[in-house]
């Protein structure tokens, strides 16, 4: 497994395991335990996923030193603001059963996230978080945040896959020193991602699968990936991307697949903003 150095010197694995939509606690605990057994050490969750406790239990199943893990969680919209984010952080820490977090993120670019960032900077300076960052921040909001804070975000976790390549945004992140991380690197298989002939042909060329080609395409551009699966064989498959490299022709063919629009989330649409705020009505969130 390769790592990448963040702007504060912290080393972060280039591939991790995500648990979005794995809401059944038993299934989540089992899936994370299987992932750790397969070799994953970066585990990505969020308060809004409702499975932090299950993730914590899975981590404790293994005799793996805490220093080997890289654990990420996130604060959601209702947890924005200085005091709310501090409370949310310690609640997540308790649910995970940890003494510190490796990465804490603002989940959405809404609410008083500047107040949240002040709280996160304090926790970061106190050593309770090794790295801090944001999710789903479009270029204008990311640049504005970077211009108005003391600690530059280490991470911006974004929807990024071959149908939504966001090259100009990646250029800005490189300029700012913010590391991109891709959630939904397969776009959940939408729009025929896995049956795309380009991926099937490239996969055949290297004796790999389309999923492995897609993940390799991301990491080869310096983008961290967090694929999700509850199937052990696919977990292992997704890790099999470190023994080959795509050539220039492959990269150009994949570049041509860019549709230039998100498949999963568009925070500039009023309907999408309503939808993400709608998660606050979910029982998992109202119990927080």
Report the portion of residues in β strands: 5-15%
Fraction of residues in helices?
40-55%
Could you say which overall geometry the principal axes of the C-alpha atoms support? globular
Number of domains: 1
Strand order of the largest sheet: 3-4-5-6-7-8-9-10
Biggest sheet architecture: 8 strands, parallel
Overview of this protein structure:
It contains twelve helices and ten strands. It is of the alpha/beta class. It has one domain: Alpha-Beta Barrel (TIM Barrel). The chain has an eight-stranded parallel beta sheet with strand order 3-4-5-6-7-8-9-10. It has a two-stranded antiparallel ribbon with strand order 1-2. Helix 1 packs across helix 2 and helix 2 packs parallel to helix 3 (82-96). The longest helix is centred in the first third of the chain and has 15 residues, at 82-96. The radius of gyration is 18 Å and the shape is globular. The two termini are 35 Å apart. The relative contact order is 0.14. Residues 283-288 have low confidence and may be disordered.
């Amino acid at each position: 497994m390769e790592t990448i150095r963040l702007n504060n010197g912290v080393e972060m694995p280039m591939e991790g395991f995500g648990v979005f939509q794995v809401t059944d606690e038993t299934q989540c605990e089992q899936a994370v335990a299987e992932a750790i057994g397969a070799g994953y050490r970066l585990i990505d969750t969020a308060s809004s996923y409702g499975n932090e406790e299950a993730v914590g239990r899975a981590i404790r199943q293994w005799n793996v030193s805490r220093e080997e893990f890289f654990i990420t969680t996130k604060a959601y919209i209702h947890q924005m603001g200085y005091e709310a984010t501090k409370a949310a952080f310690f609640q997540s820490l308790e649910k995970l059963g940890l003494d510190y977090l490796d990465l804490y993120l603002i989940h959405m670019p809404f609410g008083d996230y500047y107040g949240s960032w002040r709280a996160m900077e304090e926790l970061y300076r106190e050593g309770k978080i090794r790295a801090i960052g944001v999710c789903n921040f479009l270029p204008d909001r990311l640049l504005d945040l970077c211009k108005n804070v003391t600690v530059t975000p280490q991470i911006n976790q974004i929807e990024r896959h071959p149908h939504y390549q966001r090259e100009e945004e990646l250029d800005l992140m490189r300029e700012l020193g913010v590391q991109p991380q891709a959630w939904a690197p397969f776009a959940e298989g939408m729009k025929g991602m896995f049956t795309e002939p380009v991926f099937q042909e490239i996969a055949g060329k290297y004796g790999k699968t389309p999923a492995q080609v897609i993940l390799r395409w991301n990491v080869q551009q310096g983008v961290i990936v967090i694929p999700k699966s509850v199937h052990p064989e696919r977990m292992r498959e997704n890790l099999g991307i470190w023994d080959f490299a795509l050539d220039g022709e492959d990269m150009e063919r994949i570049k041509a697949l860019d549709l230039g629009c998100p498949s999963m989330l568009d925070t500039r649409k009023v309907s999408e903003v309503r939808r993400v705020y709608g998660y606050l009505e979910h029982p998992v969130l109202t119990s927080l």
